[in-house]
Amino acid sequence: MSLLIELFITFFKIGLFTIGGGYAMIPLIQQEVVSKGWISLPLLTDFIGISESTPGPFAVNIATFIGETSAGFPGALFTTVGVVLPSFIIILVIARYFNHFKDNFYVKKTMRVLRPATLGLVASAVYLIFSASFIHVDYLKGSLNIPGIIILALLFFVRFKFKKIHPVAIIGISAGLGVVLFSLFP
Amino acid sequence: MKATIKKANLKLFLSFLKIGAFTFGGGYAMIPLIHREVIDKHPWIDDNELLNIFAISQITPGVIAVNAATYIGYKIGRFWGAFWATLGVTIPSFIFIYLISSFLVQFKDIVWVEYAFRGIRIGVVVLLVYSVIRLMRVDKINILYILVISGSFLLATFTEINIIYLLLGAIGIGILYALLSHNKNTGGPDDDGPSIEEEIE
Fold this sequence. Notes:
Chain A is mainly alpha-helical. Chain A has helices at residues 2-16, 26-34, 41-51, 58-101, 105-134, 146-161, 167-184.
């Protein structure tokens, strides 16, 4: 029982002190979780890689994983609720009161700067995934990743041609193209 | 009345279930799905509010995907809306990780899984390019906007700067901008013109 409470409190803390999203919390997770012996450092490193290939927010993935491996289903439940709860409570409070502040002169002007700053961060994430897929390909050091470029071109074509296509369909097509093209040109 | 509220919550839950299940690679990757599910399919919020939600999610503690789901859920259905949206976005991760946790290390070594996800990463790039362009059309683009968006992009991409400092800097510039335009306002008309928020409302 005390293990469940400890798991809950640890992940509540991780959820509470993460600002700026998923990967910002890795050092904190490492410090909290590896030191308690819930996961080894190499497995944590592996998990970060695996988490990129599984759906959902990284924070929830790692919470569920550590909960499950430490205390089975109840563990997974406690860690996941723990990591989600701070976001949930804080945003409920903000959503409740933001309407009162959103027309405030200072809030409005600050949002005018914060909005492009956020978009810049999204653009940076796009660029980093893009360059990781095309430039630093380990099996063709330094050169371009031909199947990757073919997939990119095909996907842009599909997205351009079928403007109403659902993002899930694009994800599905990209997975299929990945399997076919990377198998053909390993 | 009560039945329609419940129906809205069910729709919210299902939309966020889909968003959670097909978001690969963290919070931002959900933007194209939010565009489709929460703005285009159900006109629950608009692009202007989405920008506010992501900016707020960014500067408040917590998981960005959960922050955004809770906020949008609250907007649509108050407490229970927030509850169902958050549950929806969380459940796919939970189930998936729970199921694969026992053979997680082997999962990584299945070669076609790796190929599929290399493909998906490219798919996410394509979707996000469209989403970013779409969101850039919301605000009036002036010199400040261009400086902030390119500054934030360059710092986040090419330096090791902690995102928290970057965001604090943006807030600082925002307050400075407010103070400067406040002073100007006492003298003459607002040089910034009506912002898009004012035009929409």
